[in-house]
Amino acid sequence: MNTSEIKRDNKGETLGISSGIIRLKPQQYIHVIDNNTGITRLEVGPQTITLRDHERLILRPEPMLIVPPRHYCIVANPVLRDEENQPIADPHGQIKLRYGDAEIRFAQEPFPLHPGEELAQDVTRLQVVETNQALRLKALRDFVDIHPNTPLLRGGESESEGQRTNRLAGDEWLFEGPGTYLPRVEVEVVETVKAVVIKPNQALRLITRQSCTDRQGNRRRAGEEWLVRDEGAYLPGVDEQVVSIIHACVLTERKALHLKAKRTFADVFGRQRKAGDEWLVTFEDAEIHIPDVYEEVVGEVEIATLGDREWCIVLDPIDVDGKPQLGMKEVRQGRASFFLHPGESLEGGIQKVYVLSEQEALLLRAKEAFNEGESDHLVLHQPGDLWMISGPRDYIPRIEVEVVEKRKAIPLDKNEGIYVRDIQTGELKLVGGPQAYMLSPYEELWEKELSPIVEELVAQNTDPTFDRGMLRSAAMRAAKAEEMEPIRDRTKAVVFHVPQNSAVQIHDYKNRTARTVFGPDLVMLGPDEAFTVLRLSGGKPKKPNSIKSLALLLGPDFMTDVFTVETSDHARLQIQLSYNWYFDIVRHDEQAAAKLFQVPDFVGDACKAIASRVRGVVAGEKFDEFHRNSARIIRQAVFGISEEGRIGDEFRFKTNSLVITNIDIQSVEPIDEATLKSLQKSVQIAIQITTDAQEAAARHDAARIEQEAKARLERQAIVDRSAAESERKNLLELQAENMAIESTGHATAEARAKAESARIQGELAVNLAQQEAEATRIRAEGELAQMTARQEAEFAHTQALSNLEIEKAQRMAEITSVEFREKVEAIGPETLKAMAQAGPEMQAKLLQSLGLQSVLITDGKNPINLFTTAQGLVNPIAAENPQLPGG
């Protein structure tokens, strides 16, 4: 049925309902209420219902419910039925309902819903429970369950044979597959339970919700846990809950499993374990192990392997009975392999055997009293005793012995040494080479501390003669220290190389003495000795504490200073002087050598003394006099004048035997700006005079050279003009010839061009006329061919349309005739006759039922013979002829 037909049907139904006539199709139903009695009845099609005035339609035509095979639906408030499965009505005729109840209906004939019934759940497919699956069911109310799960039969038939089970509200059970579950209103599906596949080396850990019997027939208490170790699919029971899948631990010869008991139980090996016990499961016990529910896996333990030259100490070892010996120790040496049992540990890990060479020894300490050696060489060691064993040999210490350290003989060269301290007496000593020194048990190396500046100076290892003019700031010294070698070993003797022609002073604080060492030599400090650090002035002008050094240079050498003097006429001058000096000492005289270091800053003191003398002498001289005789005045001020009136040769300092032998005056510059400008002006004037003379001579030479150049230039210009006139004459002649040739050629070319142009224009006109004629001919032929083709196409199209119309008319006539013939044959003559007579016969029967004696029915279009009609109305109608007169 198409959409238009559906719309027509709906329209017809609506019209029928609104007019009080309801036409129900097959498998349709309605609900009609009687307003007088208040009873609602069910009407099922096919039938036509005419509503009375006191009846009202409350449910329009609805299709019946169809439940296909293997489907079901739930109906709320179902009707109450008798033993013959017929609805039960009350005394008033109203169908009784089971209010608040529900009914599950399976595949059956289409059925309607009685008044009051509701479809609580649409038609749903029955649930198929597959293999290794189950439905967990819960009883909502008490009922009797018959196995297999089939509903009770109604209609007076006997109930299906099977095991009966009384289900109480709240009971839970499983419906295991494969099978189709038929639902019941008393049962609720809680969940779908799937079987758990237990693979090899796996176990299933289960727990009970309440006391029950598991699938193996074992009685389980509520909350009890156990393992299912059988491979395959396992479907948990209704009171069983899957906790997890336990994977087996694979054990090898190098790996064991550390377990701990959560409570007292018997393990899979049949051993009784108490709560808190810890033990190992090794490869000897089983290749794989699945931890029990009361076993806690602490971790995996790797095997400890000792080589031929390895040993270890095991703390709290396990005895034969598996009990830990707390506080005990055990030495194990290779070749051996073992697992550390719970509670056991290694002290210091696996260690190598001490291999001692000829120059090595071990320092040992006794941790407790014990005897060592044979009866004749029995040695008793008390706790805290120290002793040494020397090589060559191998040694594995006993439990009572602690290895303090491994010592080697210290090789010392002739210029090397170490500081050694006796830990019993506290005495310090310096041990020098050449030898290989082995410390005794009660000796240790001692670290000698030096001040930071001494550490820096010792580590620099520079030549004081080469670096005497270098001033190092703190930043430069820090950068230099970063570039130096690593920090020295403080246990080794401090060695300092005294350079050539220098001296170093060393103090012995223990004996309160000092000694001076002259270079070249090598100094090795004792434990109680220290260097004297020199802090000399440096720079220009001199600044104190600029140079730090351990070695004092003896000279000859020089030093430079800058200072300011003032003449008697108040002219201030800056003088830069350089002094040659040396120390005049006798090296073998210890008292004279000690004077060298009595003045810590001999440079600053000497420069100050000399500057003071020069200032005193210059203060009595005028500027002009001092400017002319500055060298003589300064030398006289420093060295003085002898009795003979001669200037001295040296200036000697008696305190430290320093001798100044010569003075070099490097510069004398005025400080006053005016004086300096005057001097600069006189110098500039002299320079200006010289410059002017040179400039005048240069100008004279330049003028002479310029005149000579002008003469040469004019002579060359005359020669060039004469040559240009000659060339111009030649040019004019050539131009005249060119003009004649050009005029002749132009006239000839113009005549030839005009003739050629005329010829080309004539040929072009002829060609153009020919092409126009050809184009006209081609255009006419194209239009003729086009018109011919169009007419032929129109004729063919018209002929094809005419043929199609003729063929269509023939086929439609054939189809109409065939259709009419088949309809007539399908209906048959008897049916046509019955259809023709159905209208009049029905009208006659209707009039007879109304009790009319005569009647005239007309549509007002056809004429009626009233005379015949009136005669029929006047004559009585025979009782035996029920047929009315035709009209």
Oligomer: single chain
- The DSSP helix count reads 10
Strand fraction equals 25-35%
Radius of gyration: 70 Å
User: How many strand elements?
Assistant: 59
Secondary-structure-based class equals: alpha+beta
What share of the residues lie within helices? 25-40%
In short:
It is built from ten helices and 59 strands. The protein has 887 residues and is an alpha+beta fold.
Secondary structure topology:
Elements (H helix, E strand, L loop, with lengths): L2 H16 L2 E4 L3 E7 L4 E6 L2 E4 L4 E9 L7 E6 L25 E5 L11 E8 L1 E3 L3 E7 L3 E5 L15 E5 L4 E5 L2 E3 L5 E8 L1 E3 L3 E7 L3 E2 L5 E2 L4 E4 L3 E3 L5 E8 L1 E2 L4 E7 L3 E2 L5 E2 L4 E4 L6 E2 L5 E8 L1 E3 L3 E6 L13 E5 L2 E3 L6 E2 L4 E2 L1 E3 L3 E7 L3 E3 L6 E3 L4 E5 L2 E3 L5 E8 L1 E3 L4 E6 L5 E5 L2 E3 L5 E3 L6 H9 L13 H10 L11 E4 L3 E7 L4 E6 L2 E4 L4 E3 L2 E5 L4 E7 L2 E2 L3 E10 L5 E12 L6 H6 L6 H17 L4 H6 L1 H10 L11 E3 L4 E13 L2 H155 L1 H22 L15 H9 L13
Helix pairs in contact: 5-7
Description:
This protein has 887 residues and is of the alpha+beta class. The chain is 29% helix and 33% strand. The longest helix has 155 residues, at 673-827. The radius of gyration is 70 Å and the shape is flat.
